[in-house]
Backbone:
């Protein structure tokens, strides 16, 4: 093989490899995990922690990494929807929540997707928003009774609507369940009882 044909061979090989990488990068197949912590659950957990600290771009990255591993991971769609909501991209936020609801594999995941809708409606505050939140609250409880997130975000919605007694009742329900969001519910009750 001459020098010219060897060069041609390597160029053709390089072009073929680039084409394979390009075609593989455009496909919808999930990527393989790169390490023990490279799981959808771990990325979603990190994403929600970032979201709580208002590190929205870091949260987005984590939810997107989870979706690269599993495009049907309900919690990742929900987290991404909340990021979009905080960015006031409400159409995208509601689409992501619909995917979270549709991809839910358990009653709890379905209920949490409806809680996500509650959060988006509270952020957006379109006319009739409180009624929308109340409807999604009922949907959440239909899928999983006594879910603290539903009571908590119903309390947040009532607080935003200046329905203080209803907000207190919702936050007290979170404390009564004594599962998740207890500290946050107590903080909200303290803020309601000690307005600035």
Residues:
């Amino acid at each position: 093989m001459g020098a010219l044909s060897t060069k041609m061979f390597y160029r053709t090989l390089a072009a073929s490899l680039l084409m394979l990488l390009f075609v593989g990068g455009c496909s919808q197949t999930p990527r393989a995990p790169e390490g023990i912590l490279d799981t959808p659950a771990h990325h979603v957990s990190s994403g929600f922690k970032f979201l709580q600290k208002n590190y929205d771009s870091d949260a987005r990255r984590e939810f997107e990494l989870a979706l690269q591993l599993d495009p049907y991971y309900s919690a990742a769609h929900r987290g991404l929807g909340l990021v979009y909501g905080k960015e006031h991209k409400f159409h995208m936020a509601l689409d992501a929540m619909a995917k979270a609801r549709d991809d839910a594999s358990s009653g709890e995941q379905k209920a949490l997707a409806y809680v996500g809708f509650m959060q988006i409606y509270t952020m957006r505050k379109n006319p009739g928003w409180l009624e929308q939140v109340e409807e999604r609250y009922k949907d959440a409880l239909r899928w999983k009774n006594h879910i603290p997130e539903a009571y908590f975000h119903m309390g947040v919605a009532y607080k935003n609507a200046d329905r203080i007694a209803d907000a207190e009742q919702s936050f007290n329900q979170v404390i009564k369940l004594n599962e998740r969001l207890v500290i946050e519910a107590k903080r909200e009750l303290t803020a309601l009882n000690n307005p600035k």
Summary: Residues 3-26 form the longest helix (24 residues). DSSP finds ten helices and no strands in the chain.
